[in-house]
Design goal:
The protein is of the alpha/beta class and about 250 residues long. It has a single domain (about 5-250), classed as TIM Barrel (Alpha-Beta Barrel). It has twelve helices and eight strands. Helix 8 runs parallel beside helix 9. The radius of gyration is 17 Å and the shape is globular. It binds 1,3-dihydroxyacetonephosphate.
Length: about 250
């Protein structure tokens, strides 16, 4: 994985109450020293961001938001600007998750604008891409993801940019691509980042996401060019999320 520090992020999606915040500190307690070798990030719903960020920081980890407005502060009811998220303690921000692309019609252009706004406020964007099952089965997966990356990574992206490869059909389904398919996709993404950003691109991390569980995490982390994971359901329970973190080879060092 070159000189890139592994990153394992938990996306809580639209789950979680204040009573669940102990999962953050519990995860970090269980992960122990692994937290110094691996960047651990919790992305709770915005209602819990400040408290999650405080709990994460106390345990040597960080917090991220799940979405951001592409616009600056202004008359946009219900939206949250990137500087607001920084102010609430976020260090990262997921952009372009397939659930937002599907539920809110987010296009690659919108995702690029969100990533740009996040980066301008000092947030590391975690930019999600991934093919549908129909696209995978028709042999289009690599081409689809290449197109998404070209159109949704903003110009002058910071080296803190993180790409999360999340096949839509693997999210919440218990299904994952084969190690060979993950390897082929990550090799392709790495090649695109290197070609577009050169040395700068070599610093950008590429995560796998989609049904990562304690039982399959070690196999996924062993795949070449996989710099970590974006974990959904399993990140809500400290025992599972910590087991995933501890399955990373860097945790044993
Ligand atoms: P699951 O891990 O629940 O499949 O979700 C993956 C995901 O969408 C993370 O962003």
């Amino acid at each position: 994985m070159g000189g890139r520090k592994p990153l394992i992020a938990g996306n809580w999606k639209m789950f979680g109450r204040r009573a669940d915040l102990h999962e953050v500190s519990d995860t970090l307690k269980r992960a122990g020293a692994a937290g110094s070798a691996i960047d651990i990030v919790f992305c709770p719903p915005a209602t819990l961001l400040r408290e999650a960020a405080e709990a994460a920081r106390a345990g040597g980890a960080q917090a991220g938001a799940q979405d951001v407005s592409p616009l600056g502060d202004g008359a946009h009811t219900g939206d949250l600007s990137a500087p607001m998220l920084t102010d609430a303690g976020a260090a990262y921000c997921i952009v372009g998750h397939s659930e937002r692309r599907a539920d809110h019609g987010e296009t690659d252009a919108i995702v690029a604008a969100k990533a740009k706004a996040a980066a301008a406020a000092g947030l590391a964007p975690i930019l999600c891409v991934g093919e549908t099952l129909a696209e995978r089965e028709s042999g289009q997966a690599l081409a689809v993801v290449e197109r998404q990356l070209e159109a949704s990574i903003p110009e002058n992206a910071p080296h803190s940019l993180v790409i999360a490869y999340e096949p839509v059909w693997a999210i919440g389904t218990g299904r994952t691509p084969t190690a060979e398919d993950i390897a082929a996709m990550h090799r392709s993404i790495r090649g695109l980042l290197d070609a577009r950003f050169g040395r700068h691109g070599a610093e950008m991390r590429v995560l796998y996401g989609g049904s990562v569980k304690p039982a399959n995490a070690a196999e996924i982390f062993a795949v070449e060019h996989v710099d970590g994971a974006l974990v959904g359901g399993a990140s809500l329970k400290a025992a599972d999320f910590a087991a995933i973190i501890l399955a990373h080879p860097a945790a044993a060092r």
